[in-house]
Amino acid sequence: MISKAKGTYDVLPNESFKWAQLEDKARKMLTLFGYKEIRTPIFEYSEVFHRVNEQSDMVTKETYDFLDKGNRQLTLRPEGTAGVIRSFVENKMHVQNNLCKLYYIGPNFRYERPQKGRFRQFMQFGVEAIGSNDSALDAEVIGLAYSFIKELGLKGVKVRINSLGDNESRQNFKEALTAHFMPHSETLCQDCKNRLDKNPLRILDCKIDNEHEAVLSAPTPQDHLNAASREYFKSVLSYLDSADITYEIAPKLVRGLDYYTHTVFEIEADIEGFGAQNVLGGGGRYQSLVKELGGPDLPGIGFAFGMERLLLAMEAELLSFSSEPTPDIFLVATSHEARLEAIKILFEARNKGLIADMDYTGTNFKSQFKAALKSNSKYIFIIGEDELANLTVAIKNTETQEQEQVPMKIAVRTVISALGK
Ligand code: AMP
Questions:
Q1: In total, how many domains does the chain have?
Q2: Centre of ligand 1 from the C-alpha of residue 124, in Å
Q3: Residues with a CB atom less than 6 Å from ligand 1
Q4: Helix (H, G, I), strand (E, B), or coil: what is residue 171?
Q5: Is 207 part of any domain?
Q6: Residue 383 belongs to a domain
Q7: 331-359 pLDDT, tens per residue?
Q8: Is residue 34 scored above 80 in pLDDT?
Q9: What is the pTM of this model?
Q10: What Cα–Cα distance (Å) separates residue 304 from each residue in 15, 81, 138, 237, 299?
Q11: Cα dihedral sign, 195-199-201-202
């Protein structure tokens, strides 16, 4: 037997309806906020992700990189943003719209150590709003993420927010961090030693050094915001207040990716036993990513939610999904002639919008009837010898157990009117 690859999972038929519903809820909310779907490839040329300025672990260590048969260097996408921006630039989307509000739903791939809520192939949905520096847009994007988690019914929903400031503030903060960590470099983990040089912000995010004394006493981005950045952050917060969004300022929040400037945020819920997995998604504003990928000098802001985590959270909180629809009609017919009539009715029912099925495995009446009951169908249509002779169908209502003989010609219509469809 060949098993699934490490870090992956199958969505089996008894689970897939939950996925479909989660996606459906996401699409509805995204549409309410005026976002349009974009679907980009699962693999891209590696340079889309491995840019000179991108030093995050996700991009330097966790990507699935490969050469195709034409010797092209490709990467399975580890996150949604870079591919969306690549497409935005390539398709010159800014020419049509001053502001592009895009969303995506799809799988990402990271070579991480699999654990609860962490996989090597996982699903994210997210948004990117590209083309505006308006601080109200930050509040809108955060508000969208917040509203969605609330809509799912999760409790203790909270936005954790921080500002890294503009490039100047960020640079000042970076220098302050380097100066702060330098005397401790010997005691930092190997990864953090490397980060000290390239991107000391990432040290604050380190999973190994998170209790390190120097990390705990490190300066925060807030200490280094210039006046304009402070003003911008204040304005974002005032819009959040206006929109009645509960938030908490998280002075140490920097987020993993290198491209963030100004606003960064995470959305948390309060789920028993979830610990760090309570962070359901996050995002931030980026200033130079569009330019870095060869486009115009336009800013963007976005977020992504991990969908496995959302489902795990909903299950842990016993939030229900609406159950899968059961068939309206299940047909039972044993003889070849009866099956010919049954097939006609089956296709007629489906053409008229009813969920209809019949059994293809059982031969005798008993086994077919068992299959009909197992399907939880609302009605069972029986075509036996008598029915065939009289051109009728025995229609059994599985809820009331009542059964009546109905002419074949009007059998489907009878059910349609009984169901009020
Ligand atoms: P990130 O793109 O790292 O900012 O992650 C955004 C969200 O995606 C996280 O909050 C998680 O919910 C989810 N996520 C990230 N990595 C994984 C993974 N390996 N497996 C499952 N979910 C993930």
A1: 2
A2: 7
A3: 79, 110, 112, 117-119, 122, 124, 256, 279-282, 304, 306, 308-309
A4: helix
A5: no
A6: yes
A7: 999 899 999 999 999 999 999 999 999 99
A8: yes
A9: 0.89
A10: 22, 9, 14, 20, 17
A11: negative
Enumerate residues 6+ apart whose C-beta is below 8 A from 330. Answer: 356, 357, 358, 359, 371, 372, 375, 377, 379, 380, 381
- What average pLDDT does range 91-101 have in this prediction? 96
Structure token digits, residue 143: 């508000």
How far, in Å, are 52, 162, 222, 257 from residue 177 at the CA level?
A: 21, 17, 12, 17
Give me the pLDDT at residue 324, please. Answer: 81
Q: What pLDDT, on a 0 to 100 scale, did the predictor assign at position 194?
A: 82
Q: Is residue 176 part of a domain?
A: no
CATH classification of the domain holding 24: 3.30.930.10
pLDDT for the residue numbered 60: 76
The residue with tokens 């030693």 is: 193
199 and 192 in contact (C-beta within 8 Å)?
A: no
State whether residue 40 is helix, strand or coil.
coil
CB 126 within 8 A of CB 26: no
Give the number of C-alpha atoms closer than 13 A to the C-alpha of residue 376, restricted to the C-beta side: 4
Mean pLDDT, all residues of the chain:
93
Residue 317 confidence class, pLDDT cut points 50, 70, 90 = confident
Quick check: is 175 in a domain? Answer: no
pLDDT tens digits along 264-273: 999 998 887 7
| Residue 58 CA, closest ligand 1 atom number | 3
Give yes or no: residues 304 and 368 share one domain: no
Determine the angle formed by the axes of helices 135-152 and 13-32, rounding to 10 degrees.
150
Sign of the Cα pseudo-torsion (410, 413, 417, 419, in order): positive
Distance from Cα 54 to the centre of ligand 1, integer Å: 17
Q: What is the pLDDT of residue 238?
A: 98
Atom of ligand 1 nearest to the CA of 124: 8
pLDDT value at residue 51: 84
Same domain, 247 and 337: no
Contact 341, 388 (CB under 8 A): yes
What lies within 8 Å, CB to CB, of 408 at 6+ separation is 341, 345, 383, 387, 391, 392, 393
Range of the domain at 385: 329-419
Which CATH number fits the domain that encloses residue 380?
3.40.50.800
| More confidently predicted of 204 and 248 | 248
Identify the domain boundary among 277, 295, 316: 316
